[in-house]
Every structure is written in structure tokens, then in C-alpha cells.
Amino acid sequence: MGGLDVLYLFQGIATLLASEPGIAIGRIVLIILGLLFVYLGAKGTLEPLIMIPMGVGMAAVNGAVLYLSATKMGTIFIDPLVSDPAPLLDALQINFLQPIYTFTFSNGLIACLVFMGIGAITDVGFILMTPFSSMIIAICAELGTILTFPLAVWMGLTFKEAAAISVVGGADGPMVLFTSLMLAKHLFVPITIVAYLYLSLTYGGYPYLIKLFVPERLRGIKMDLKGMPKVTPGEKIAFSLITCTILCLLFPVAAPLFMSFFLGVIIKESGVKKFVEFLEGPVLFGSTFFLGLLLGVLCEASTILNPKVLNLLILGMFALLMSGIGGLIGGYIMYFISKGKFNPVVGIAGVSCVPTTAKVAQKEVQKANKHAIILPFAMGANVSGVITSAIITAIFCTLLR
Amino acid sequence: MDKRVEHIGFWLGGTLVSLCGVYLVRVLSPTVAGVPAKWIALAGYFLALTGISLIISGIRKKHKKEVMAKPAIK
Q: pTM of the full predicted structure?
């Protein structure tokens, strides 16, 4: 027993003591942050679907650093930086999450799977019923994306990095993941984490933004639902097919995203029950689960500690805040155009976090007026926001790739 | 106007306008050099999105007419 090295036995602690102070502190902070995410996710303050697996992954990976050889430290979870075929093959056989990362993350498949699931729970009929207001609001709700790009360049980020972080303003997780993988692969971990962290905060933060910018009298405006036309499933399928084809012809770089989204929509409208259940259940929740878990596992201190992370935190928050304000401005524009018949709170739903922002809008409106229903209009703005964000992503990818 | 033509007119019109936009962006613009290429591409993007908007407004108009044509419930 005399020869037993306790630190060798507990390599997680040994590597913590042996690493540079910055990395060691980073690991401890990330473990605590992981635990906090799990707590806040379980409590419902943050989005539990992402935050619980992400928090567990974060705490575990930062505790599980070991000696891979006499001099090299690492984990047997994942190696995000490996790309050469021979080491990649080794990594695939050693790191237990490497196959999921290599075959779904680095090629953007996970973003497409999430998008397919989102498509299957989205009704494009809402945008066809209220196209004009939906489009105006969705364009205004991209204010964050538009303003963040020059700000990020001014703060020293390259055009590609700036584009990747500014897409956070679109508030669409898969889109952020896709853009950062396309344009700034070296920053995709911090950018995606910042995006998902802030996106899960929108549910708690946007109601305050609504209360700040929209007085209670306007929040309670009842909207006319009687004159709303009903769109048939056939029309929705035809519209989705044409729009998907045109957008793919225009922006082939983002075609996987467009195809995934509209495939989900078309399957939903075609009423193939088994496929609908498959997409909105296993595909959407399965990919969301692994997305959260892998994002957490990628938060290993030596990977994530990047001097640009602080800038990304500031820019991400700025982008989402400005998009929320932009959406409300869009709501006000519609309020004035309709001479007071349009509830400006619908504007917040232009931020395309489907269906969170639409639900937030409806909840806040109902607090002001129990009888006011704005959900169909909010969903129209929401779906329009998704399409607008995808177009902006496509423009960035086409211009900067 | 024939009802059928009226019903599919906006589908065909919108799709054609969009495809014209795609032609400008993907076919014509790469063959032109310099600044005009950018303007052609921009016009193409605009035209493509206008086509999609035409389809949307066509669907909406058609259904609005149907809603208006329904007798009011007393």
C-alpha cells in the first residue's frame, strides 16, 4: 500500500493540480456553472430541455480530465479538434461521444434534425393568413442581427466571426449552430453555448421587455380573429414546396436547413401520422437532448477558455436585446398602420424562438386582458421570423464563406 | 376571368417571377463583371422574394373572398 499514489488514483484532482492556474480555475468555475444550469433548468428558470443535459455534461467533463499519456491531459468524452483521418479513427474508438460529434455536429446534421422537428410542429398557415404584418415584424426583429454585425467587427472580430455571433439576434439555435460551423468553426462551441444560454433566458427576460415598452392599455388590445381565412393543407404543401425550391436555388449553401424545415412542414401537412410522431418526438427531442449534452461536454476549460468569449457574451446579449426591441418596434408599426387595431406585443414573436416568443406574447397579453387572443398572429410572426433568420443565415454564408 | 385561371394564376405568376429572380442571381449575375453583377444579383433576390410574396398574397386574397362570400350567421 505504501507505493499507492492517491493522486494517480484520482486523476481528475491530479490533473486539476497539475494544470495551469487559469485552466484549473476555469474547470472549477465550469463545474459550478454546470451544477447551476442543472438546478435552474430543473427549477424552470432556464430551458430544461437544453440546460439539464448541458449542465451535467459541463460538470462531468471538467471533472473527468485524466492523463492520456505521461504528458498529455484530456478526456475520454470527446476530442473536438481532431480532424486527420488516423487520429480521428482512434478517437472514434476511444471517446464515447466522438461518433455522435463527428457524424452529427461537425457536418451540421444535428441543426438540420432540430430544424426538421421544428418544421413538424410549425404551421405555415399562420404566415399565409397574416403575411403583411408577419413579414414587417420579422424584418424588424432582425434588428439585433443587423446591428451586432458591425459592432462585432468594431470589437475586433473577423467578418466571419462577426456574422456567426450576430445570427444570435435571430434567436434560432439551429441557425446559430449552422452558421458558426460554416463560418467560424473554431468559435462554434462558445458561440453556440452563448446562444442557447441566452435563448433559454428569453422566456424569463422578454416579459420584462414587453412591460417596459408596451403600456398595459395597449397590451390588452383585442384582435379580430373572425376575418382570418383558413388555409388548406394542400396550399400549405404547395407553398412550402415552391418556397423551399426557390430558396435552395438562391442559397445552395443553406439548402440543408431549408430542406429540413420545409420537409418537416410538408410531412405535418400531408398528415402521415407515423412520420409526424417520429419527427416531433424522437427526432426533435432526441437531437435536442444530444445537442445539450454535447454542448456541455464541449465546455471543457481548455477548449472554451478563449479571450474572445467575453466579447461573445456581450455581443450575444446585445443581439437578443436589440432583436426583442426591433420586434416590438415592428409591432408598433403595425399598430399605427392598423390605426390601433393591432396589438404591438405580437412584435416580440418576430424573434424566431419557436414557439417560445409567441407563447410569451400571448401570456403577457392575457395578463392585461383575459379575453384577448393574439396567438395566431404571434405564430405568423414567429414562423416568418424563422424564414427571415434562415434567409439572413444564407446571405451571410453565401457572402462570407 | 375564368375561376380556375384566377385560382392558379397567382401560383404560376409568383413561381415564374421567383424563377426569373433565380435566373438573375444564379445564371446572369456570374457572367457579368464588377458592380453591375451585384445590382443584377440584388434585383434577382428581390424578384425571387417578390414572387413568393405574390403567392402568399394570392392565397390570402382567395380565402378572404371566400370568407366574405359566406353568409353571416344571425
A: 0.85
Question: What helix, strand, coil percent values describe chain B, rounded to 5?
Answer: 85, 0, 15
Asked if B52 and A135 come within 8 Å (Cβ–Cβ), the reply is: no
| Average pLDDT of span A335-358 | 89
Partners of residue A249 in chain B, C-beta under 8 Å: 19, 22, 26
A270 CB burial (10 A radius; 0-12, 13-18, 19+): middle
Of A304, A268, A305, whose CA–CA distance to A284 is shortest? Answer: A268
Q: Which residues pair with A74 in a beta bridge?
A: A66
Sign of the C-alpha dihedral, residues A398, A395, A305, A7?
A: negative
Question: Which of A231, A238, A246 has the CB atom closest to B48's CB atom?
Answer: A246
pLDDT of res. A17: 84
Q: Does B42 contact chain A (CB < 8 Å)?
A: no
A267 or B73, which is more confident: A267
Rounded CA-CA distance A394/B47 in Å is: 17
Q: What does the pLDDT average to over A278-302?
A: 90
CA A120 – CA A30 distance, rounded (Å) = 35
Q: What is the mean pLDDT of chain A?
A: 88
Closest chain A residue to the Cα of B24, Cα to Cα: A250
Summarised one tens digit per residue, pLDDT across range A304-324 is: 777 778 888 899 989 999 999
Q: Identify the CA nearest to A141 among candidates A361, A398, A372, A376.
A: A361
d(CA A225, CA A10) in angstroms, rounded, equals 64
Q: What share of chain A is helix, strand, coil (3-state, %, to 5)?
A: 75, 0, 25
How many interchain CB pairs under 8 A, A with B?
A: 54
Q: What are phi and psi of A76, to 5 degrees?
A: -105, 30
- How many other CB atoms are there within 10 angstroms of residue A96's CB atom? 12
| Chain A environment of B22 (Cβ under 8 Å) | 246, 249-250
Question: What are A17-26's pLDDT values in tens digits?
Answer: 888 888 899 8
Q: Is A269 helix (H, G, I), strand (E, B) or coil?
A: helix
Helix (H) or strand (E) holding A67: strand A66-67
A352 grid coordinates: 424566431
